[in-house]
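G., the chain you wanted modeled:
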Amino acid sequence: MREILEQNESIILFANGLVFFALGFAVWLQRRRATRLRLTSSLIWLATFAFVLAFANWGYVFVPIQTETLDPGAIKVLVVFRALLHAVAFLLLLQFGLRLLDLKPQTRIGVTALSVMWFGLIVFGNAWVAESENWSVLEWEASVVALSRYTVLLPAALLSAIGMWRQREALGIAGLSGIRPYAVAAAGALALYAVVGGLIVDSAPWAPSGPANHDDWFEITGFQISLLRTLVGLTLCVLAVKLLEIFEVETDQQIEALDHARLVAEERARFGRDLHDGTIQSIYAAGLQLEAAAMRAEDSSVRGEIRRVVGSLNDVIEGIRGYIKGLAQTDDDAVGLAAGLREIAHKHSLDTSRDVRFRALDVEASGSLPPEASQHLGQILREALSNSMRHGGQCRSTVYLTFAPDEMEMQVRDNGCGMDVEQAKRAGGLGLRNMTERARRLGGRLSAYSEKGNGTRLIVSIPLDSQVLDDMPTDADVRDEVTV
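Predicted structure as tokens:
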């Protein structure tokens, strides 16, 4: 068995690259699909990691083949490029883990900057050591890859495993309980990859001996570590494909919501037509009869009383006409939503004497809004502005409303003293919980970021449908109404 594995090492390395390439390709195909979950929106980083790692692993197969056709200088360049691909792949996996953990933007940016600086230190530090110790380019590569595995891949895989484990709750809230076991299994696979990919390294000039060394591992177990990495990668690939079913479930939920919205729109349209063609015409006919009776009446007081009744009927007709218009033009379109939220912000500013600014962008580009969007977003904005007043003090708040064909985003920012968001979550307050639930009911997600002295930022992201419903009666449908 040992001899078979040794003789087919190139095939194992090629299979390793193929498995990770398949993982990246499967996720990459879904990259443009809208999603409300942090897990699926973060998978693109896992896909990019898998792509880069696949090409790095294929380098161990194809670079040796080129030694007979390329000059030594070109081979050295390819070896350096292969080492850089490994380190970059590990940095991409770190980004996947950071996004799954839903860290504050400042924390994520800080960790990213430190990891990039550490990447440069690994590359150039090992180059300096290689120069002083007279290492070959292959020894330099082995040192770079081994140090990258210990210091980047190991924490990146562990953070990804922790983040994947935490996504179980979000999947349950989103009604995707059937997907949760795959997330748990993926967390376990990532933790295992931290061991086989981050703790057991290839032979390097300074690498420890024993089971943590590739050669010693093979001598002890009889299995190449690249084979175990391939099996773990294959497991991740299968689990990622199962996790991608989230997109199908979300699509079904959006279609269901769209069908519900269409049924509601059709019912409102029918009700509006019935009011126009039946109720208003009946009231109009009654008004004509009363007007004729008033003309026949000899007593002026009776004529005046009848005309007052006719006037009341005119008011009823105007009221019904306004109601029909209300059915036809709901607040659950981009223009109505923006106007309603602007009014809420303006009223809060007047009532509290605080500086509240409002800005809506790309309203005309909006796709179809989910049902009850104005109601839920209005309540979220009221709660956010109230929280800003309670926790931020007398500060300025700014509301940004941004639309796109497939998504809308509402940001509420202030420059106050800030608050501890995690403490607020642990305290079990209803405000943040209710806002999160309202965002979830719209198929979206809510994120809150705050630091003491640096204000608070609340972001609500809602996926939209680019198909716009147009089943309601328009102004032209009610222009032929008659008044008495």
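Residues 138 and 400 are 53 Å apart (CA to CA).

Shout if anything looks off.
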